[in-house]
User: Which sequence fits this backbone?
């Protein structure tokens, strides 16, 4: 029996150190992650009595590379783990002058826990009163599924109850991407509308109505792509852009300690 599989290779510029990985997508199961398996091939005559280290480095870019001038750098790096691979030892502590001379990008993708699919669809309601009229308006909203994939229809059920003395004339519904960068002292938050719909209601006092509106979470046109977070790619030649997936965190992880971007999606309804 012949077993075939793909191997990824990266070599140093002088061809003395080679790194091989069996995969470049490391799956994240929220509570744990897959191991990174690979091998390092070195030239002993080049290494001599020096040591060779393998590191897992997280690199976060929060600005465009084209804007980096005069030493300004829009990236932050965090060494997640370091291990001496030659000569092999059980553990070690790397110093600042110890550099891995070969780097190969890997991609960590999250796997959706099965219990997320069995959760009830999201729903919510709000009742508001106003200074310009008496009574209240109640808006109830529910979705048809707990989880959505990109380009999948999102059916939004809206129930509006008008108990004021004025007409409710419009209904606005949006699907939005929320993003947060908690590692900065001044936490940056951003909201971006992906798709929206607006309907005329003309709902008189004492009346109620039910509406079902279908929207799709789509990547905005190229001129507005810089306003949303997209899924990263291992190669620059990958065709098509996809929205970043919702960030799932274990219950014991503090949001303010996350080194990266927290992404979520909401449906916003306004009458």
Assistant:
């Amino acid at each position: 029996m012949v077993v075939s599989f793909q191997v990824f290779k990266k070599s140093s510029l002088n061809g003395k150190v080679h790194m091989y990985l069996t995969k470049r997508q490391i799956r994240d199961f929220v509570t744990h992650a897959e191991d990174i398996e690979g091998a390092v091939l070195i030239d002993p005559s080049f290494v001599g009595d020096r040591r060779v280290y393998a590191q897992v480095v997280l690199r976060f870019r929060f600005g465009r590379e084209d804007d980096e001038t005069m030493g300004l750098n829009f990236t932050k790096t965090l060494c997640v783990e370091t291990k001496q691979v030659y000569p092999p030892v059980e553990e070690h502590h790397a110093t600042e002058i110890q550099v891995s001379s070969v780097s190969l990008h890997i991609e960590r993708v999250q796997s959706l826990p099965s219990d997320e699919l069995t959760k009830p669809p999201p729903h919510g309601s709000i009742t508001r009163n106003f200074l310009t009229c008496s009574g209240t308006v109640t808006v109830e909203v529910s979705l048809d599924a707990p989880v959505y994939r990109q380009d999948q229809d999102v059916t939004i059920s809206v129930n509006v109850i008008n108990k004021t003395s004025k007409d409710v004339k419009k209904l606005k519904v949006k699907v939005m991407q929320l993003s947060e960068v908690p590692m900065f002292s001044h936490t940056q938050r951003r909201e971006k509308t992906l798709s929206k719909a607006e309907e005329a209601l003309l709902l008189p006092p004492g009346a109620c109505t039910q509406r079902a509106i279908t929207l799709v979470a789509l990547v905005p046109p190229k001129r507005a792509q810089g306003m949303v977070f997209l899924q990263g790619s291992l190669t620059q030649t990958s065709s098509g852009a996809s929205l970043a997936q919702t960030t799932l965190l274990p219950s014991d992880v503090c949001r303010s300690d996350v080194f990266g971007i927290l992404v979520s999606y909401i449906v916003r309804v306004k009458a």
Notes: The chain has a mean pLDDT of 84. Residues 44-47 form the longest helix (4 residues). Helices lie at 44-47.
